[in-house]
Amino acid sequence: MWQNISLELIPALDFNSDEWHADEIVVKINGVRHYIWFVIDSETRFVLGFHLSPRRNSPQAFTTFESVKHLGKPNSIVTDRYYAYNTSIKAVLDIPHTKVESFRAETNNNLIECFNKQFKVWYKTKNGFCNFDSANNLITTFVFFFNFVRPHMSLNGLTSAQVAGLSLTAKQQRKYLNLVA
Q1: Residue ranges of the domains in the chain?
Q2: Buried b (16+ CB within 10 A) or exposed e, 30-46
Q3: Can you point out the beta strands (E) in the chain?
Q4: Which CATH architecture does the domain made up of 2-180 adopt?
Q5: Which residues contact 124 (CB under 8 A, 6 or more apart)?
Q6: Across-strand partners of 49?
Q7: Which of 1, 61, 84, 90 has a Cα at 20 to 30 A from 170?
Q8: Is residue 139 helix, strand or coil?
Q9: 27 near 34, Cβ under 8 Å?
Q10: ∠ CA 99-48-180 to the nearest 5 degrees?
Q11: pTM to 2 decimals?
């Protein structure tokens, strides 16, 4: 249900910013390593999408970028130097790819690393996930909260969705709050 709510709102939002950032992190599902691939808009801090997978390879990067390509077209995408990003960004998004050399470089991936840190703090309380479906559902819930509910200090107390252009009437706000409650 959470995904349907956020997907209904996304077409009205603007993600044509200067940069998107992408990275992947490790989580455990029933004791087995899995990877979550995240893509975040730099200007709104909106988590554009994620992909949960038991593998960390090029096909997973392709899947990740396929899932967000309809949301807009940034001027470039920033990632670490992991090889899986090279071909997938060129083939799916056809935009310049900036590979971060270090955390101290002028162009860095600190924005998504900061998000990863917040996610890991939340994830740590879970002690891993029990199964793939519940992991996907819980991650979706976290992303929904991060995008639509949580005010961000770096965004002057607004949510990522508000910065991306979300403007709901009082009636619409009640409708979505009732769906979430």
Answers
A1: 2-180
A2: eeeebbbbbbbbbbbbb
A3: 19-29, 32-41, 47-53, 76-79, 97-99
A4: 2-Layer Sandwich (3.30)
A5: none
A6: 39
A7: 1
A8: helix
A9: yes
A10: 155
A11: 0.86
